Amino acid sequence: MDIQQLQERLFQSVKSKLAADASVAEEIAALLNISTDSAYRRMRGEKIISLEELYTIATHYCISLDQLMSIETGGFLFSGNLINSKTFRYDAYLTAMMHNLAYFNSFKEKHFFYLCKDTPIFHYFTSDDLAAFKYYFWMGNLVYFPEFRGKKVSFDEYPDELKALGKKIISLYGQIDSSEVWNMESWNTTLHQLDYYLDSQMFHSDKDALRVYVAMEKILDHLEEQAKRGYKFNIDDPEKKPLGKYNMYFNETVIQDNSMMTLLDNSKMAMVPHTAINYMITRDITYCENYYQYVQNLIRRSTLISEVSEKERSRYFRRMRERIERRKEGLKP
């Protein structure tokens, strides 16, 4: 591979990381503090970029030089942030999630795959009550904020700013065609978290716990109706106007890992969870292609329960509701 080919691949990688309507030349010009014409000359290969410019571009856009030069190292480059109680801000976490979804929506062709060990995180924001419960649980048990240790769930204290961000997140996710692979365990994590909070007396009353169970039932109703119709719609929309296409699959044998992938025009991006609610992102071509083939094989071994397979769909949601109903019966009247 000669220098011009390497340079061409570099700018192709930059383009794949930008919104569909963004100008690569303008982005590069701003990053390198050069004119747009100078950026175009570099993009056309008329001017060879310097080592310093290569470093700046690769660092800014998280581009692997090994991958760029087709050097096989056996490693994959991921990007992301680490969570700790000293620097973590939940509003910033949700804002980053919202920006990622807005970025995905900027592409003409986009499709989201979600392998659901748990309920996809976006669906929690369909209900303020469930979103509030998750907020208190995550802050007190996963991120370990001292002020949340032993703090009881308070729906009234759940910040309006977080409610608004959650609404934007579920709205943006609703616009993306999606394929979700579910199993019988996908609601168990939330149910076990509720069991723990009830046993630890982390609700002010059983009525507050009941609000979370009712919220889960409403989300199940919404998901079932979306699966029946084969498209997403806003839960508050009485007309149920179609948004993104919704493919729901049921796999009875394979427990998933909450990993995700987006297809964006001609590129792929994989997201791998770590440390509970955090995730890492990669555009590594080898990794993404391998992951995509895994997802396709898994889907072929799963049952499509959106639009078709009414019996299987009804069976799945009935069993989920039964688990919630049994727990509701154990609450004090």
Descriptors:
alpha/beta, 333 residues, 7 strands, 12 helices, globular, 434 Repressor (Amino-terminal Domain), 7-stranded mixed β-sheet
Helical content (DSSP H or I, runs of 4+): 40-55%
Shape: globular
Low-pLDDT segments, ≥5 res: none
- Contiguous helical run count: 12
| Mean pLDDT reading | 90
The proportion of strand residues reads: 5-15%
Structural class call reads alpha/beta
Q: What is the strand arrangement across the widest sheet?
A: 6-5-4-1-2-3-7
Biggest sheet character: 7 strands, mixed
**What is the strand tally?**
7
Radius of gyration: 22 Å
Cα distance, first to last residue? 73 Å
Task: Please trace the helix and strand order, writing H or E for each element.
Answer: HHHHHHEHHEHHEEEEHEH
How many discrete domains?
2
Write structural notes for this entry.
49% of the residues lie in helices and 11% in strands. The chain starts with a helix and ends with a helix. The radius of gyration is 22 Å and the shape is globular. A 7-stranded mixed beta sheet has the order 6-5-4-1-2-3-7, sandwiched between helices. The chain is α/β, with parallel strands linked by helices and 333 residues long. It folds into 2 domains: 3-68, 434 Repressor (Amino-terminal Domain); 90-329, no CATH class. It is built from 12 helices and 7 strands.
Break the fold down into its secondary structure elements and pairings.
Blueprint: H1 3-16, H2 24-32, H3 36-43, H4 51-60, H5 65-68, H6 90-105, E1 110-115, H7 128-141, H8 160-174, E2 177-182, H9 188-199, H10 206-229, E3 246-250, E4 260-264, E5 267-274, E6 278-282, H11 285-300, E7 303-304, H12 310-329
Parallel strand pairs: 1-2, 2-3
Antiparallel strand pairs: 1-4, 3-7, 4-5, 5-6
Helix pairs in contact: 2-3, 6-8, 7-10, 10-12
